[in-house]
Structure formats: structure tokens, C-alpha cells
Write a structure and sequence with these properties.
With 141 residues, the protein is of the alpha+beta class. It has helices at 6-15, 69-77, 100-103, 110-130, and strands spanning 19-22, 27-37, 43-53, 62-64. It is built from four helices and four strands, in the order αββββααα. Helix 2 packs parallel to helix 4 (110-130).
């Protein structure tokens, strides 16, 4: 469970203005937009309707594909939902437990987590658009 400060909530609103944070439920939900480039790969600009549950009880808040875009993209890419790192309940397979220390060396940081969501969604969008992975995906965990 992650408790956000007023500053962090404000930062989220500034960073992703089409998403809203509910302080009571700990849910951050809305249209998550990004424009990223990985190494010499194409710039991907995309958006996903997601829900982030900051009160979930895992290593990281759970991120859900509320708009079901990833499920549709799996079909278009000829892949299973799990191959697109999406579980049947709609939450994203964001990180293998063995990689937690590498990504979050000093514990949970909100800015790192938002960047993590961006890179995860970039990977999904890239696979959908180009039919190949921009980098080798981690095993599911």
C-alpha cells in the first residue's frame, strides 16, 4: 500500500492532467498519455485508459487496463493477453519480482513508477504497431 502526499497528488495531476486521483479510495484513473522513444526505435505516442490502485497490497500499486485496449491489441498482434503482459483480471504484469531491486533500489518512488508505466505501455504499443518487441520482455512473475 502506497500513501501519497499532497505534493505527490499535485505532481500526478500536473504530469497526467487527464487522470484523476481519489484520496479516499487511493485510485488514480483516466487517460494516461505518453510520447516516448527507446534508443534508436520509433517515437511512440499513445494513450490508455488505466486505473492505478495505490491501496493494493503488492510490491507495487496494481495498474489496470480499464479501457481494454491491451486486450484488443493482443488480438491484433496475434498474441495472448499474457504475452502482452496482461492478466485475465485486467491488471498489467509490470515487473518480475527478481527485478524489483534493480528498478526500485531505494524503495518505491512515484516518479520512477510513472516512468515504469510509460515504458510498459510503450512496449505494448510498439509490439502492436511493429509486430516485434523493442526489447526482450521479462518472464511473467
Amino acid at each position: 500500500m502506497v500513501h501519497l502526499s499532497d505534493y505527490e497528488i499535485s505532481w500526478l495531476q500536473h504530469r497526467q492532467p487527464q487522470m484523476q486521483y481519489n484520496n479516499e479510495t487511493g485510485i488514480w484513473e483516466g487517460l494516461f498519455c505518453f510520447s516516448l522513444q527507446y534508443q534508436d526505435k520509433e517515437v511512440i505516442t499513445d494513450e490508455y485508459y488505466i486505473k492505478v490502485d495505490f491501496k493494493s497490497s503488492g510490491d507495487l500499486p496494481l495498474v489496470y487496463d480499464e479501457g481494454r485496449k491491451i486486450a484488443r491489441q493482443a488480438i491484433l498482434a496475434g498474441r495472448s493477453k499474457l504475452d502482452m503482459h496482461l492478466y485475465n483480471d485486467g491488471h498489467l504484469c509490470m515487473i518480475h519480482h527478481n527485478k524489483m531491486k534493480e528498478w526500485y533500489r531505494r524503495g518505491f518512488k512515484l516518479s520512477k513508477f510513472v516512468k515504469h508505466i510509460e515504458t510498459h505501455l510503450y512496449w505494448v504499443s510498439y509490439v502492436t504497431k511493429y509486430g516485434q518487441e523493442p526489447w526482450k520482455a521479462e518472464p511473467h512473475g
